[in-house]
Amino acid sequence: MAFGFYDLMTQLGVDVMNSIDMRSMAGFFAAGIATVLGGLLVGCGEVNDDGGVSTDSQAELDLAYVADLGEESAPDVSSDVGKEGTADSTDEPDGETPDLPYARCPYSTRSGRFTVDLKESSTSIDGVVADGVVPQNVPTVTLSEGGCSLLYPTTLFCEPACEPNFTCDVSGSCIPYPQNQSVGLVGFLGLWAPFTLKPIPPQQIYYYRGSMPHPAFSPNHVVTLQTYFGEHSSFSIAVMGVVPLKMVSESLLFHNDKPATLLWEKAESSTNTAIFVTASLANHGGVPARIECVAPDSGEFTIPATLVAALLDIGYSGFPTVAISRESASSTTTELGCIELVLQSEVVLDVSIDGLISCSSSQDCPFGQTCMSDLHCQ
Questions:
Q1: Distance from CA of residue 339 to its chain's centroid?
Q2: Nearest-CA neighbor of 254 among 279, 229, 230?
Q3: DSSP 57-88
Q4: Could you tell me if 117 and 215 are in contact, meaning their C-beta atoms sit under 8 angstroms apart?
Q5: Which neighbouring-strand residues pair with 260?
Q6: How many other CB atoms are there within 10 angstroms of residue 47's CB atom?
Q7: Helix or strand (DSSP H, E) at 40
Q8: Smallest Cα–Cα separation from 194: which of 344, 1, 2, 8?
């Protein structure tokens, strides 16, 4: 008879009953029934093309994965639970919301990221972990005010130029380019159905965009990521489900020397979530500087005028945007660096700039003007 995900986790020493709430238990129970029926009616399962694992083949894949690694490579998946950036359980004791403070990784140490992304009509999961930080991905902070920072791309120069598979660091030296790593199987508990992702070679990326429940999580409900059977030490990260973000603002107005204000429908105040704002004006050419802000979920936030003016001075191209995300984020430090889990509901709005007309072709431009290569009329 087929062997289910619940049975596998139990044999590994994970107290599944204390690691998920009743809704997740229902998902495990349903998956177990599907596993048994799949074993009786089909006799075998299959691995989905989208990187996820169907319930009737979950155990076969897991056991084959362990066999490939060797018994000594299989970690004790319960050993990391309770460390910094993790949670002991997805249960909420006595009906209280667990304390999972909002904590992203600093760019300077972030080597991995997993995202559970709640879109308007679907939910997706993806992630990647490398064995180091790519220097080019660490921006330079040139100005900070009012919860916002102006981030400028870091300039790197090595002479002579670096060989293939190497990259330049901030000291002007060539270093090995960080390589994506397999962290084994990555399981998610606390969603409406349990999911396990496997690394997809050769890039060793993780993603699941197949048929998922939507929304895949409940607000203020713990979602836990747990790795196991990896070549590196296992880790666990827990975050909170968020309320879908609904914007009141239809666009963001950028005027020189004036602050820019965003409005949205606020959710219940919580230290577990925040509003993350990214304003990007050079999406189709120019210097890709940006403003990033972390704001409380109060329903209103204003980007200071000094940062607005500074970003406009750097330059802009057609179709500037601002991404607003209600998110819960947590992180943990591993032998590979800092790895974060972000659960988010994101909305992207246009940025309106005086005198800028964005275009896809010259037909979008006023008479006598041409659509330039950076998609603005001139």
A1: 10
A2: 279
A3: GHHHHHHHHHHHH-GGG---TTTTTTSTT--S
A4: no
A5: 303
A6: 14
A7: helix 22-41
A8: 8
For residue 87, what are the domain limits? Answer: 5-106+181-240
Flag whether 222 is in a domain: yes
**Tokens 């679907």 label which residue?**
122
CA distance 262 to 277: 10
Find out whether the peptide bond into 106 is cis, omega within 30 degrees of 0: no
- The DSSP string of 115-176 is EEEE-SS-EEEEEEEBSS--GGGSPEEEEEETTEEEEEPPP---SSPPPTTEEE-TTS-EEE
pLDDT at 210: 74
Residue 88 neighbours by CB distance under 10 Å: 16
For residue 98, what pLDDT is reported? Answer: 73
Task: Kindly tell me the burial class for residue 240, based on how many C-beta atoms sit within 10 Å of its own C-beta (0-12, 13-18, 19 or more).
Answer: buried
Whether 240 and 101 have beta carbons less than 8 Å apart is answered as: no
In a domain? residue 69: yes
**Tally of domains in the chain:** 1
Is residue 239 within 8 Å of residue 223, measured between CB atoms?
yes
Q: Is position 92 within any domain?
A: yes
pLDDT of residue 87: 32
The CA-atom distances, in angstroms, between 236 and each of 46, 88, 123, 224, 353 are 27, 9, 21, 7, 43
For residue range 212-236, list pLDDT tens digits in order.
889 999 998 999 999 999 999 999 9
At residue 52, the pLDDT reads: 56
Query: What are residue 196's DSSP bridge partners?
Result: 187
pTM: 0.77
> Closest Cα to residue 191, out of 212, 221, 213, 216?
216
Q: What tokens were used for 180?
A: 């994506």
Q: In the prediction, which pLDDT does 114 show?
A: 98
Residue ranges in the chain modelled with pLDDT below 70: 1-97, 209, 269
d(C-alpha 66, C-alpha 74), whole Å = 7
Confidence at residue 208, expressed as pLDDT on a 0 to 100 scale: 87
Asked if the structure places residue 295 within a domain, the reply is: no
